[in-house]
Amino acid sequence: MSSMMKAAVFVEPGRIELVDKRIPEVGPNDALIRITTTTICGTDIHILKGEYPVAKGLTIGHEPVGVIEKLGSAVQGYKEGQRVIAGAICPNFNSYAAQDGAPSQDGSYLIPSGLCGCHGLKATAGWRFGNLIDGTQAEYVLVPDAEGNLAPIPDGLTDEQVLMCPDIMSTGFKGAENANIRIGDTVVIFAQGPIGLCATAGARLLGASTIITVDGNNHRLGISKKMGADLTLNFKNCDVVAEVMKITNGRGADSAIEALGTQATFESALRVLKPGGTLSSLGVYSSDLKIPLSAFAAGLGDHRINTALCPGGKERMRRLLNVVASGRVDLGVLVTHSYKLEDIVAAYDLFAHQRDGVLKIAIKP
Ligand SMILES: [Zn+2]
């Protein structure tokens, strides 16, 4: 094994490039994974554009599928050579944040560098790959706190079938779980990108019986029907709030899931809700939100607003892999393109410009 590898790093806004990097040393709690497939996330496009700041020279990417190359001396329960995934979010499950029920907000490892309070709770800091430590768009990635974060891939599943588990499926399903869906519910899901499509699949699995999806792209609305949408609304051709009120006989939806991160989608998600309904927000917002007074019933409507970052960890990953293995949903259909790691700059260009019906791109070292 050579000591060097290829990795896609952030150079400056507008530039992510492939460079040679040293393969990392394996500490006692780490695992070195040889990446067999990874992908590009919408969040990586925010990084590329300079809208989400990361350190120059950081390897990007947070969706690993691969093989254990080397295990740290303290890591129990896995074998070198085993096929695994790890969550996009990889907290230390001994942390205060994890024991407080919010592992994705674990900043415990930042305490020694003074970047986090003494209790280690720091918003989004459980997201380490391609954010705070080197990520997965490389030949190898080092998984920290590996015993809590690695999940073996069930026999017979391809890389493409499990590629959504680390992030997109975990996030989208969390959006459905946070919507407090009950059997028979009416749910409206705003935006049908990969995460919104997974939220749609999650809403169906949880028992929603009228699933209404909203997007401006008819191709994506077509795919959302395959994921479980009963009705699709193109916001360019209709007044979405009025349509939902018509469909529900003026009652309003039991819950709404926001999967984009804009004022317009957040506000519409609130306006379609029944009193007592739940707004589950997944989007990454880039400016202050305004809450409209009427839709919010002046604060007296018993509404709930839930936010989430992708859940990680081996138990979460085991459940998601089990959903795939049982055939309950097929998210492999979201993988529309495949590129070699050496061509990742072209893959970023395709993905950033949403050409050619792209949803997710398999990147293979
Ligand atoms: Zn992501």
How does this model look, in words?
With 365 residues, the chain is α/β, with parallel strands linked by helices. It is built from eleven helices and 15 strands. Strands 3, 4, 5, 6, 7, 14 and 15 form a seven-stranded mixed beta sheet that branches. A six-stranded parallel beta sheet has the order 10-9-8-11-12-13, sandwiched between helices. A two-stranded antiparallel sheet has the order 1-2. α5 crosses α6, α5 packs across α10 and α6 runs parallel beside α7. The longest helix is centred in the middle third of the chain and has 14 residues. The two termini are 15 Å apart. Zinc ion (ZN) binds next to loops.
Strand content: 15-25%
CA radius of gyration: 20 Å
Find the count of extended strands (DSSP E, 2+ residues).
15
Runs with pLDDT <50, length 5+?
none
Q: The biggest beta sheet, please?
A: 7 strands, mixed
What's the rounded overall pLDDT mean? 97
Q: Identify the bound ligands.
A: zinc ion
Overall shape? globular
Number of helices, counting only DSSP H or I runs of 4 residues or more: 11
SSE order, one letter for each helix or strand:
EEEHEEHEHEHHEHEHEHEHEEHEHE
Give the proportion of residues in helices. 25-40%
Find the structural class using helix and strand composition.
Answer: alpha/beta
Question: How far from one another are the termini?
Answer: 15 Å
